[in-house]
Design a protein that fits this description.
The complex is a heterodimer of chains A (598) and B (198). Chain A has 20 helices and four strands. Chain A is mainly alpha-helical. Chain A is globular and about 80 Å long. Chain B is an all-alpha fold and 198 residues long. The radius of gyration of chain B is 19 Å and the shape is elongated. Classes of the chains: A mainly alpha (598), B mainly alpha (198). The interface between A and B is large, with 52 and 44 residues.
């Protein structure tokens, strides 16, 4: 154990005298909590924006070639003449929906937001290891976001090549793709800086006594996520540079010889390889899927342990599974490429690794479900979202198995089945976990609690409508409806019997939009006038709840020292039923003192 | 507020924050250049006649050899700069640090002449895939050289003020900057044979 005091309290006392200007305190702040909130708010705003893009697409899918009511005239004659969404505009919406949701919505909220805000508090650190780099990483994200948004205003529109930006299409596409690449380079830089910061912080700044196996599962999930970002993003950066060269300098990295476009031979040297893009892209993008899901699992683990009032079942197995999962996620990428003709040997290898990677995921999910067994579960809004997460992520994971086997994937590839599977993982999966996290840590960030009734009004409709959107996708996909058709498939006979589902899905999507209104009201009203929260409103054991709500600059009033594991709930003979990580051994009645000593 | 282990080493890891940070950054750089080397391999094995493309490009081996020597020398002066700080000799440190930046300049000037000679023969990135990957990788490497030079120059002149506040901190920063510089050097050690000799 390191020396206990670390001069924190002195540093803090000295800090009280320092008055920061508004700009330094709230805008260009180096405080991890402010940066975390900046990330979270940016992420939420982009989630809403990306959701709006999708609601437009759903109109076109449900009522193909009918004018968009009310807002149809907003998009101009190039995109929606007379309010009818053109296929090119549909493609633009689709590409930007995917890009924004993944890189500007979920990642900033799950990693940038929760990671920044919670990780240092949970390990008992005063801040991140590199506070200024932390600020830089947020502003890189911001620039990337601005670039992506600005690209909508280019004369040729934003990128329209799918979020995967496959070459050669993306090589020869209009200018929006260049803006996409530049935006991505900013976003990648932001993630890299963030990842370096997270790993260094987790290694170096854990409070005395916070050994690796006393680390809350959420911190483990952030640590593994940071390694994925650190090692998987640079190949996409390389791919981005190469595609940028193809577009700007006329190289042919991804353009094969003899490419003919619109009846004309393309004037390039050729000799490139379109599959190279797919390899480099999926080398990032498969670990990226785990970047989306691991922080969610971390949040759910915290909420489940807290509300079942039980230690997590199989904490160690969960941690080892997580590390194994992180490692395996680097050698499964080509299961996205079974129909590219890369050969049966490659396919066999990647379908084997894919089946192997499902094992640790199942271990973690099973451990979370077994944790519920025999508990007297406390039902509150965070717990509802966590309980919703478990079966929804389960459906997402299980529907992924057929896609991981080459023989089953070949007919399912690029159908709505894939979309259904992926969205079950990230929408009622990850997003529900993120909502659970927002309701759970809101009192720590603001000192006030969110309204429980509005929270439930948010949860139940969201659960119903999420399934209303995504379950029919699985059915449509099994009927062979392609994911990329701007008319929802009605031009093909085989889609006839399932095309009618499109209206029900679209109505569910718009209702899901309405279901977010209680959340928005709850979020903004509770900041100012929510019920005042104590420092530890959920009677939680982990270290972040030892800090005042909201925590001051430097986080803790007395330097935390950790004496035990993270989930000491329902300890026999204890009253109340939990022992915080910071309570010294043999100090049965002194737990309150340890919290309020400040 | 003081962040712990900014200067002093963590008792368990034996490292300070910056050292871990720079090594993590270098791992990500390895993945970046690793992806580009993988691209090189895929283009090379996919090409009809790579040897012909390479011969056509007529890369200047003597100039590149000189450049290799220049970069290796700059790595030596980088170590000397750090060693001077360890011996608490600020003036010698400045001299060696500026020499490192100077060698970086020499490298870029030679690179400039190489590039312009290619352009003069109408050899552009768009000419063929060999030149495309050559310009992309050496260009990205040159950007890394410029980045390293910027940091080194900063620590040599304006950043050296830190010496009077905390000499160990400056020494650590120079060590970390040096790790990056050696990495940039190492990338060139791979680029040189891959493009010029093989």
């Amino acid at each position: 154990m390191a020396e206990p005091a670390r001069g924190l309290s002195e540093a803090h006392a000295e800090h009280h005298h320092e008055e920061l200007s508004f700009w330094r305190q709230y805008v260009f702040s180096t405080d991890h909590k402010v940066i975390g909130i900046q990330y979270a708010v940016t992420g939420l705003a982009f989630l809403l924006f990306g959701f709006c893009l999708m609601m437009l697409m759903r109109w076109q899918l449900a009522y193909p070639d009918q004018p968009l009511p009310l807002i149809g005239n907003l998009f101009g004659p190039n995109r929606a003449p007379g309010g009818v969404i053109l296929p090119d505009f549909y493609n633009e919406l689709g590409a930007m929906h995917g890009t924004i949701m993944v890189f500007l919505g979920v990642v900033p909220l799950a990693v940038g937001g929760f990671g920044n805000f919670v990780l240092p508090l949970q390990i008992g650190a005063p801040d991140m290891a590199f506070p200024r780099m932390n600020m830089l990483s947020y502003w890189c994200l911001f620039l990337g976001g601005v670039t992506m948004l600005a690209s909508f205003f280019l004369p040729t529109g934003a990128a329209a090549n799918g979020w995967t930006s496959y070459s050669p299409l993306a090589d020869i596409a209009l200018n929006g793709q260049t803006a996409w690449l530049i935006g991505m380079i900013f976003l990648i830089t932001s993630s890299l800086l963030g990842a370096i910061n997270f790993i260094t912080t987790a290694i170096q700044l854990r409070a005395p006594g916070m050994s690796w196996m006393r680390l809350p599962f959420f911190c483990w999930s952030q640590l593994v996520t940071a390694f994925l970002l650190l090692l998987a993003f640079p190949p996409l950066e390389a791919a981005g540079v190469l595609q940028l060269m193809d577009r700007v300098a006329g190289t042919s990295f991804f353009l094969p010889s003899g490419l003919v476009i619109g009846g004309q031979a393309l004037e390039v040297s050729g000799g490139g390889n379109p599959l190279l893009w797919q390899h480099l892209f999926w080398f990032l993008a498969h670990p990226e899927v785990y970047v989306l899901i691991l922080p969610a699992l971390g949040i759910v683990a915290e909420v489940v342990a807290n509300n079942t009032r039980k230690p997590l079942w199989g904490y160690r197995s969960m941690v080892y599974s997580l590390i194994f999962l992180g490692f395996m996620s680097f050698i499964v990428w080509a299961h996205h490429m079974f129909i590219t003709g890369m050969g049966t040997v490659m396919s066999s290898f990647f379908q084997t690794t894919t089946m192997i990677i499902s094992i640790p995921s199942v271990v973690i999910l099973t451990a979370l479900i077994i944790s519920l067994w025999g508990a007297s579960i406390r039902i509150n809004t965070p717990m509802l979202f966590a309980l919703g997460f478990l079966p929804m992520f389960g459906i997402g994971g299980l529907t992924g198995l057929p896609l991981g086997l080459a023989a089953a994937d070949i007919p399912l590839h690029d159908t709505y089945y894939v979309i259904g599977h992926f969205h079950y993982v990230v929408a009622p999966g990850t997003l529900f976990a993120l909502f659970a996290g927002i309701y759970y840590w809101f009192p720590k960030a603001t000192g006030r609690q969110m309204n429980e009734f509005l929270g439930k009004l948010h949860f139940w409709p969201s659960l119903i409508f999420m399934n209303g959107i995504f379950f029919p996708m699985l059915i449509q996909g099994l009927n062979g409806v392609s994911r990329r058709l701007a008319d929802g498939g009605i031009s093909y006979d085989f889609a006839g019997e399932v095309a009618g589902l499109n209206r029900m899905m679209s109505v569910s999507a718009w209702c899901l939009g309405l279901a977010q209104i209680p959340f928005l009201i709850n979020f903004f009203v509770s900041i100012k006038s929510g019920k005042k929260a104590s420092d530890n409103p959920w009677q939680s054991t982990t270290v972040e709840w030892m800090a005042p709500s909201p925590p001051p600059h430097g986080n803790f009033l007395t330097a935390p020292v950790v004496y035990r594991g993270p989930y000491e709930y329902s300890v026999p003979g204890q009253q109340p039923d939990y022992i915080p990580q910071c309570q010294p051994p043999g100090d049965a009645g002194g737990r309150r003192a340890a919290t309020v000593e400040t | 507020m003081e962040i712990p282990y900014t200067v002093e080493a963590h008792p368990e890891t034996g490292l300070n924050n910056g050292k871990i940070g720079i090594w993590l950054f270098l791992t990500s750089e390895v993945m970046l250049f690793g992806a580009l080397f993988a691209t090189f391999i895929m283009l090379r094995i996919g090409a009809d006649d790579w040897a012909h493309l390479k011969a056509e490009a007529e890369l200047n081996i003597p100039l590149a050899t000189v450049n290799t020597i220049v970069l290796i020398t700059s790595s030596v002066t980088m170590v000397m700069a750090w060693a001077s700080l360890m011996r608490r000799q600020l003036d010698r440190y400045r001299l060696f640090m500026l020499a490192t930046v100077g060698f970086g300049c020499v490298f870029l000037v030679i690179k400039y002449f190489e590039y312009t000679a290619k352009f003069a023969h109408h050899h552009y990135p768009s000419t063929n895939t060999f030149l495309a990957i050559y310009f992309t990788m050496t260009g990205l490497h040159a950007l890394h050289v410029i980045g390293g030079m910027a940091f080194n120059f900063y620590y040599a002149v304006p950043g050296a003020k830190l010496w009077h506040k905390n000499p160990q901190w400056l020494t650590d920063r120079v060590e970390h900057s040096g790790l990056f510089w050696h990495f940039v050097d190492l990338v060139w050690i791979f680029l040189f044979p891959v493009f010029y000799l093989l």
